[in-house]
Amino acid sequence: MASEQAPVEMPANFSKYTKRVMLKTILGRTDGGVGLVRQSVVIGGWVKSSMEIRKQPVTPPPAAPAPPVVSPKDVTCSEVFQSRIPLFRSIMKVFGAGEYRVREKLDVVVRKAPQPSVSILQVSDGSCVTSLQVLVDSALANPCQVMPTGTCVLIEGVLQQPSMQGKHYVELQAEKILHLGLVDESKYPLSKKRLPLESLRDCSHFRPRTTTVASVMRIHNSLTWATHAFFQDQGFLHVQVPIITSTDSEGFSEKFLVTTLLSKGKEYDQISPAENAGVSVEAIRASIKEKTKKVEELSRTNSNKEALVAAQQDLKKTNELVSQLEARQKTKSGITIETRQFDFSKDFFTRQTYLTVSGRLHLESQACALGNVYSFGPRFKAEKLESKKSLAETWMVDVEMAFSELEDAMDCANDFLKFVCKRILDGCMEDLQFVLKRIDKSVMERLQFTISSSFERISYAEAIEILRQVAGKKFQSKIELGVSLTEEHESYLVDAIYKKPVIVYNHPKELKPFYVRLNDDGKTVATFDVILPKVGALIRGSQSEERFNVLSSRMKELGLQKQQYEWYLDLRRHGSAKTSGFSLMLEPLVLYATGLNDVKDVVPFARSFGRANN
């Protein structure tokens, strides 16, 4: 029987568009890159840490033998005279024939050449957790330039076995520096030491260079890719929904208003660059006094009429400026945007528009023609609160399925979560092992348990009754029907009672949006929340109300302006179908997969209340 052959490792090839070898293709091999020894490569990345090793001084060769002694030869008269010069000077000094200073021998300072050294760099290019060890001789590059953390390098060299024992299987001996991006160490915010994630939020443009954030971003990428893979494999179509909308999808969310009218109001006009430059009214008043004196002097002398006219015009403009600034201050203190009346017919879209909160309504129109559809894009909520699990700008997966009911949507959400958890376990093992070591020791177990366990399904009323019967546990929030379950209640259900993911369905209609289907009891609606350990309610879904009369009554009950939703009601007037779906915020899913506690640390640029730095 033929023996099984080991998988053939491919050589480290150049990345197609960057003319360099990605470190993952070297360090991600099963042999750690040993099979690539003696191969010439070009790598690029950023220095994570470094050290310098001095080379041992080279022992000089043995001295040459002394030359043979030359026998005396005849001496010339000039040589005899030169040898007697010190004697002549002494005689002249005795007889006072003058002072002759003997020039002393100058001490020549000879600068020693810098001792040769080798800079050992740990270089990362973001493609994997592990860094590549790179050896750069001081003759090739100044250690002061290549060693600082954050330095960008593009190096050509030869892979070799490590010169020192350590964790590396292979290292790169640099032969040529192709690019060197220097760093100002006094201003660069990162260092060799691990920094708290909270402090990195103030330099979000640099934090992907840290190992932790880079691993989180790669897991984030895998979850995004897995999301598309799941729905594409299941025959869904990816559809873009608008970011700017005139429809309030949920009916009770705080929204960002989109308008161009603010730039048209007098009280919001730009008065002068002086105010933006920090010039105060008091400073301008002081300059007015000086300019007034200048005008008075020119008026008395009457010597330069052109200078007088120019000074008068300058004084007039300065007086106008201070008047405008004073009026602006009064306007700011007396008028707010909330109380101002806008004429939206003169706005860009000729009506009131917002940044979208959810894509479910628009997606439903596509599902009623294309079947099963999903959307993946940014959503916005103007909630003025500090939360570790939500942002003002978040990326959301919205799903809508035609000819589908509540049970179908719950099944789809269940399968989706299991799929993405398995995908990152299969494709992000190195990053998950790093997370396991540095952040959350239970992350692998949690993901594997999500894949293997069955999700418990209970109604909202059952959840309330179960929590009421808990003995020996005092909840901070009161448990009663008609009130939303808090994070504390949800955590107790999944962590203490069921010890696995839980789906809570059929909520009171007062707690859910207007478009969800009213159940036969007239009190609850066909909705569900998927609750997971650590993150709480990760997915919220529902079956949409397909009955025109019921939907119209629900909108009237909530006081919604019907004209904004005429297009949505048309879906019920013409060819109505049952649809169901759900929404999932990606950032809490990344929290679940990484063990981090704050969504601000799992997005490239966090947008939250009071924070939009770049």
Automatic annotation (TrEMBL):
GO terms for molecular function: asparagine-tRNA ligase activity; ATP binding. It comes from the Eukaryota. The keyword Phosphoprotein does not apply. Residues 340-607 form the Aminoacyl-tRNA synthetase class II (D/K/N) domain. Gene3D superfamilies: Bira Bifunctional Protein, Domain 2 (3.30.930.10). One of its GO terms (biological process) is asparaginyl-tRNA aminoacylation. Its EC number is 6.1.1.22. Belongs to the class-II aminoacyl-tRNA synthetase family. Keywords: Aminoacyl-tRNA synthetase, ATP-binding, Coiled coil, Ligase, Nucleotide-binding, Protein biosynthesis. SUPFAM superfamilies: Class II aaRS and biotin synthetases. This is asparagine--tRNA ligase. Residues 281-328 form a coiled coil. GO terms for cellular component: mitochondrion.
